[in-house]
TrEMBL record:
Domain DNA mismatch repair protein S5: 205-323
Organism: Neiella marina
UniProt keyword DNA repair, yes or no: yes
Residues of the full protein shown: 8 to 334 of 590
Role noted for this protein: This protein is involved in the repair of mismatches in DNA. It is required for dam-dependent methyl-directed DNA mismatch repair. May act as a 'molecular matchmaker', a protein that promotes the formation of a stable complex between two or more DNA-binding proteins in an ATP-dependent manner without itself being part of a final effector complex.
Family in the record: Belongs to the DNA mismatch repair MutL/HexB family.
GO function terms (MF aspect): ATP binding; ATP hydrolysis activity; ATP-dependent DNA damage sensor activity; mismatched DNA binding
Keywords for the protein's UniProt record, in alphabetical order: DNA damage, DNA repair
GO cellular component, one term: mismatch repair complex
Entry annotated with the keyword Iron: no
GO biological process: mismatch repair
Protein name, entry field: DNA mismatch repair protein MutL
Length: 327
């Protein structure tokens, strides 16, 4: 199975940031409220993701490292309404096939923790007892040690870490109810405690998007029945800073969609001359059967069933919010 896993890994595991994405999504799926990400040498030496989620049973640990054992997609209906973040059932096996991966976990009903790792050509999964609080730690050492071609494509540590940091920022903007901590080479880079209040949310927004963004914000909240738009926009008169935050989330997932981006720019075009300086953190929610998230395996793309409807709704909602600031 090692070869099959490595082929699958080609789709899922492009670089350290894609590993972190899969593992943090697993932690979120497991109901974690605190997630810690430790990175060494841009993730090439070590990635460690620790969570306080529901953990994995001793029996399930072995399965979790075996490909396709856990796929949650059993029918077409499942595919059409995937509400949890992970669904391919192969991330852990794929990552394990291109690194030295250990999985340590303790579910609340177990008094002891167990550590699992795959070994040898046939990737036999071994188990041994370990010390761990309730939750899970995945440690990924020597990423791509056995796939030199892929290793060669890795950029400088700084660049790879930057991708991880961007990912954590996006995840933190999509889950204010979860605490995130990120460190690089032992140094704390981000500490984002979970937010229970609006004040705490704004503080996180500021820590991620900068004080400049938060000084001149318009809050937006539009509800057109099944279509909802919420979030923050930079006031037109403040659209001068280079590289303003431009984040869009669709059903809780960070997505850069051409239709949505175009709509936002169109709304800004009425009030600012350079729409590349528009800043926004926007959340669109719509029924799961109105959007197809399976366009691409890395899930950065979507396809709307009613493209025009979504586009026009976003234009109208953003334009209206921006106009109110002009009064
Ligand atoms: P998928 O998430 O698509 O099911 P993965 O290979 O990413 O596939 O994970 C396999 C399984 O291992 C998951 O379905 C889940 O049951 C379990 N698992 C993985 N990571 C965690 C975690 N951090 N906490 C609890 N369970 C986990
Ligand atoms: Mg997963």
């Amino acid at each position: 199975p090692r070869l099959a896993n490595q082929i699958a890994a080609g789709e899922v595991v492009e670089r350290p940031a894609s590993v972190v994405k899969e593992l943090v999504e697993n932690s979120l799926d497991a109901g974690a409220t605190n997630i810690e990400v430790q990175v060494e040498r841009g993730g090439q030496n070590k990635l460690l993701i620790r969570d306080n989620g529901g953990g994995i049973d001793k029996q399930q640990l072995v399965l979790a490292l075996s490909r396709h054992a856990t796929s949650k997609v059993h029918s077409l209906d499942d595919i059409e309404s995937i509400a949890t973040l992970g669904f391919r059932g192969e991330a852990l096996a794929s990552i394990s096939s291109v690194s030295r991966l250990t999985l340590t976990s303790r579910p609340p009903q177990q008094t002891e923790a167990w550590l699992a790792y795959a070994e040898g050509r046939d990737m036999q999964v071994q188990l041994k007892p370990a010390a761990h609080p309730v939750g899970t730690t995945v440690e990924v050492a020597d990423l791509f040690f056995n796939t030199p071609a892929r290793r060669k494509f890795l950029r400088a540590d700084k660049t790879e870490f930057h991708h991880i940091d961007e990912l954590i920022k996006r995840l933190a903007l999509s889950r204010f109810d979860v605490g995130f901590a990120l460190s690089h080479n032992g140094k704390s880079i981000r500490n984002l405690p979970r937010c229970n209040t609006d004040v705490a949310k704004l503080k996180r927004l500021q820590m991620i998007c900068g004080a400049g963004f938060c000084r001149d914000l318009v809050q937006i909240e539009q509800d057109a029945g099944t279509l909802k738009l919420a979030g923050w926009l930079l006031k037109p008169m403040a659209c001068q800073v280079q590289n303003p935050p431009q984040y869009t989330f669709i059903n809780g997932r960070m997505i850069r969609d051409k239709v949505v981006t175009h709509a936002i720019k169109q709304a800004y075009a009425a009030v600012v001359s350079d729409t590349s300086l528009a800043g926004y953190v926007l959340y669109i929610d719509l029924p799961f059967d109105q959007v197809d998230v399976n366009v691409h395996p890395t899930k950065h793309e979507v396809r709307f069933i009613e493209t025009r409807l979504v586009h026009d709704f976003v234009v109208q909602a953003v334009a209206q919010a921006l106009q109110q600031t002009q009064l």
